[in-house]
Every structure is written in C-alpha cells, then in structure tokens.
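Section 5: illustrative case.
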C-alpha cells in the first residue's frame, strides 16, 4: 500500500485549524459565504473521501466554510455572493508545483516563441510582430527555432533579422538552447567580428569570407547574452505576472520556487503587499553570499496571508543527466572514466546546512545522480544529527537516480524527495545509455521510495518542462509519452496510482512547503485554493488526463482564471 503517511495528519490538521480559527477570529470570521461552487463532485484529498461525494464548496473571506451538498452550500450564501455552477466538473485542491522557476517561466513567456515555425520566413515574421507589439523593449529575445523544421535545413543568417528591426538587437535561441541566431547589431554590441576567436567550448559560424553569419554555437552564445542588459523592475514584474497567469490558467495555485535571490524575494514581498503575486510561492533562497547573509539576518518568514514563504534555501550538489553533469557512483555507461561533477564544495554545503538549517531554514538540495544523492544524504545525516531539529523537512530536489541502498534513507532521515514525473518521461528514451540497465533500478523510483515510507512531492521544474499538471499526473500514472509509448510504460512498477499522483501534486506538496494546515485539501478552515476540472482526474483513464482542462481556478477565495 502506498498511501503517504501525511494523510492522517492532514485530517487532524483540518480539525485543528477550524478550532484555532474559531478561537482567533471568532469576532470577525464571517459565517456567510461570498463564493459558492456547486453542481460538481469534490475530491477533498483527505485520508478518506466522504461518501457520498460532496457536490459543493462554500467560501467565506478566502477560506473554505463548508464542503457538502448543494443545498447546504447555497443556504450559506451571503447577499451578493458569487454562485458558480461547475456543471458536473470536479473540484480539487489547487495544484502545487513543488519544484519550478517562476521567473524563468515568465522570461520564456516574454520572449518570442519560435517553436513550430515551418519556415525561416515564418520565424522572421513572428519576430517582426513581436517587435511591433513591444516598441519599448531595448532587446528582442526569442527561442525555439529549429532549422530542421524548415524546407531548407540550413542555419539562418543575421541579415534576415536586420531587414526588419535595424534599430534593436535581436537574439533568438535554438530549440535545444545550444545555439542562437543573432542580428548584426547584437553581434556589434557584443564586439563579435571576423577577428573574434571561437571561445572554448563554442563556435562562431562564419561564411566563406570568414564573416560571422549570426549563428553562435554553445559557449559562443554567451558572447552576446553577457551584453544584454538586466531587465528593469517593471519588466521583471511583467514577467512574474505572465508566469503566474499561465500557472493559474492551468490550475496551479502554489509554486515552490527553486532559487530566488534576496532582491527577487523582496520584490515578491512587495507584490504580496500589493495583492499582486497571483500564485502562492514557497521560495527557496539561492546559494549566493549576499542572499544567504541577508536571509540569515531576516530569519525564516511567511506572509500573514500565506501567499509567500521565505524559509528555505536551495543548494546544488551536482549537474544534470542529459549533459552528463549528474554525479554518479560509477562511470557513465556511455563515457568511461567520467562520473559527472560535484558542483559545490562540500565544506560550503555543510556550512550552509549548519548555518541556515540551524536558523530554522528548510534545506533543499539539487541532486540527480546516485553519487550526488548519496553525498547529500550523507551530509544531511551528519548535520541533522548535530542540529536535531524538531521539524526540518529537508528536501532533495529531483532525487532522480538512487542507489537502491540509499532509498530507505529518505524515510529514515525524514528527507523529502521532490520529484518531477515529466523528467522521467523526458529522460526515459536515453537514460539507459547513460546509466546502463543495472542502475535503472533506482531511477525515478517513486514507488520504491513510497514503500519505504518516504515523503514525496511532485512538480515539473518548469520552464525546463511544461507547466501542465494534468500531463504530470499522466506521466506519474503511466510512465509513457503522451503518444502511449513505450506500450505498457517504462519501468512501470515505479508508477503510482491515480489518487497518489494527485495527492503528491496537492497535499504532498503542501506538506513539503510547511503549508499542510493551509492548503492542499478541500476542507473547512483551509484556504480556498481550488480548481475545477472538466473531468475526474482520479476516476478517469490515464489517457483522458491529456484532454482534461482546468476550467476555473480560485486562489484565496477569488476566481483568478476561467470562471464558467
Ligand atoms: Zn529546477
């Protein structure tokens, strides 16, 4: 049985919160609902679903007042309450993406999207359109072109870009991020000329006369990106808003943001004060000296409305599997003699764990390879043994490849594995080349971890992957690509059942972000973060998840996307 242990806790917490609120806010807490969702089916994600299933939720002042039948909910309506018939939709707790990069998503959304451009002319036309739509932007950036999609499968030339935007530099990344197409002005600003030598690990594509064509490969892209000015605050705000809106449209109401600077965190605080953050954010501070010093001085902090928590820190133990940066215990199967990289000095990791962990911060460490994971577990074991914190909930971000001997250590140490179902399906076609059959036993081992009693939470790592949580549920259940391959699923014994998948995307994430008394379930007293889906994500066939949609999203009792 793979039922996560937190279910029982969540139920108790619901009761406790109700009692606490009755005590604290008895004078002010409204007993009439300002928002009612009815005519659906509620999946509460409590330990046991009530039978018969509730059909309605009543919300008052941002919190859930009542979960039950339509009649009971409608009877609570205050005058002027918003009443929404969800038309047989399923009401679930808002999705919690437990590992993502909100600003990265906003930056990607702010760029010209060139994916799927069928010709080079179409790519140029999209850039021209963006140039016209954004007259104030000093640089135009884009991503997603692929010359293999074009009738003439050749790298494009800078002159095509010069023709339509002479006054502004342009940089467009290729779909894989390993090349970019720059305009003449961008090259000029970067000082790239025929005389510029290729940088180490990169190349400048040149024509027969030795002149740069505008296409830059790998590290040569950095020659241009380093001269792009940092965006000003209005642009950063715009990007964060784009990202939040995108999440809300898809039903994601909370994001665990894996690495923010002190400065970005302060901007997020201002957005909370203005009521403009949009999604709930559990932010992890990045591992920069200035960020850590300021965070230590400020101490762990959560906003009164629960929209933002600044009580975690993000570290890196190793790199990624695709680029063979993940630290392995043995050699890469496809590169003998190479075991990946320990990207951060161990003494520094230990120092941050002791110092920030000792000050009450949650430590979240990126580890992908079995070597990286062992390194982190060893350090966690040592430092947690010294600190003996009461409720640490330290996390390993990704925990992709585990030596089977290390799997039980997560539960034993109380360490959370923050995992991404879509990473499994993105990597499964080539993971065996890197790792060999023997090491796949502990790869994306959700079921093996759950069986040992470990805590997990699910997310996507967007914008590395798409935000779509329903695709994450599909990957978690099937370990197949959306096209249904490989038939039967890749190492399907590690897949999880439909309810567990949803739990890890809601209540499991809430626990991993210290918010299990606030969000993650649909129960009285909890904050009203809700999503209406036009299908039942637990009762449906896995393939149906791919056609399902969030039709209405509610954060803190406000309808923020869709609306029926
Ligand atoms: Zn990440």
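Designed sequence:
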């Amino acid at each position: 049985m793979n039922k996560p242990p937190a279910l029982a806790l969540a139920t108790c917490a619901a009761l406790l919160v109700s009692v606490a609120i009755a005590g604290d806010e008895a004078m002010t807490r409204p007993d009439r609902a300002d928002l009612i969702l009815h005519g659906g089916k509620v999946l509460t994600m409590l330990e046991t679903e009530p039978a018969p299933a509730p059909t309605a939720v009543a919300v008052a002042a941002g919190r859930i007042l009542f979960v039950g039948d339509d009649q009971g909910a409608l009877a609570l309506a205050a005058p002027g309450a918003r009443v929404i018939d969800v038309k047989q939709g399923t009401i679930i707790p808002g999705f919690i993406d437990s590992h993502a990069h909100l600003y990265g998503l906003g930056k990607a959304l702010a760029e010209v999207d060139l994916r799927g451009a069928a010709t080079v002319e179409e790519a140029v036309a999209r850039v021209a359109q963006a140039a016209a739509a954004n007259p104030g932007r000093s640089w135009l950036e884009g991503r997603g072109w692929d010359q293999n999609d074009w009738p003439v499968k050749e790298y494009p030339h800078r002159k095509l870009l010069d023709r339509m935007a002479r006054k502004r530099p342009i940089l467009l990344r290729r779909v894989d991020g390993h090349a970019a197409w720059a305009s003449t002005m961008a090259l000029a600003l970067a000082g790239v000329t025929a005389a510029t030598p290729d940088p180490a690990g990169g190349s400048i594509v040149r024509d027969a006369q030795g002149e740069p064509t505008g296409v830059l490969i790998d590290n040569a892209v950095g020659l241009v990106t380093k001269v792009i000015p940092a965006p000003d605050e209005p642009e950063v705000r715009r990007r964060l808003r784009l990202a939040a809106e995108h999440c809300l449209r898809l039903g994601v109401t909370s994001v665990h943001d894996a690495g923010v600077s002190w400065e970005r965190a302060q901007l997020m605080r201002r957005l909370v004060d203005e009521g403009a953050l949009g999604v709930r954010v559990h932010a992890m501070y990045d591992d920069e000296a200035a960020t850590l010093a300021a965070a230590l001085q400020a101490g762990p902090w959560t906003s009164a409305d629960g929209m933002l928590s600044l009580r975690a820190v993000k570290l890196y133990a190793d790199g990624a599997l695709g680029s063979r940066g993940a630290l392995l215990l043995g050699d890469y199967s496809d590169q003998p003699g190479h075991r990946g990289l320990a990207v951060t000095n161990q003494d520094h990791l230990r120092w941050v764990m002791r110092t920030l962990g000792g000050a009450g911060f949650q430590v979240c460490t990126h580890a992908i390879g079995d070597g990286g994971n062992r390194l982190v577990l060893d350090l966690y074991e040592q430092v947690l043994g010294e600190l003996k914190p009461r409720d640490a909930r330290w996390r390993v971000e990704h925990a992709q490849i585990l030596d089977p001997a290390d799997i039980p250590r997560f539960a034993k140490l109380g360490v959370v594995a923050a995992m991404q179902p879509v990473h499994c399906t993105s990597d499964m076609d080539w993971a065996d080349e890197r790792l060999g059959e023997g090491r796949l036993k502990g790869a994306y081992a959700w079921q093996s971890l759950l069986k040992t009693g470990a805590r997990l939470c699910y997310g996507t790592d967007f914008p590395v992957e798409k935000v779509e949580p329903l695709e994450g549920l599909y990957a978690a259940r099937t370990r197949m690509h959306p096209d249904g391959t490989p038939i039967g699923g890749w190492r399907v014994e590690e897949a999880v059942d439909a309810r567990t998948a949803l739990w890890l995307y809601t209540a499991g994430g809430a626990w991993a972000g210290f918010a299990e008394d606030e969000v993650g379930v649909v129960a009285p007293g909890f904050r009203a973060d809700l999503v209406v889906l036009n299908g039942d994500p637990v009762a449906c066939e896995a393939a149906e998840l791919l056609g399902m949609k969030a039709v209405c999203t509610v954060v803190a009792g406000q309808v923020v996307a869709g609306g029926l």
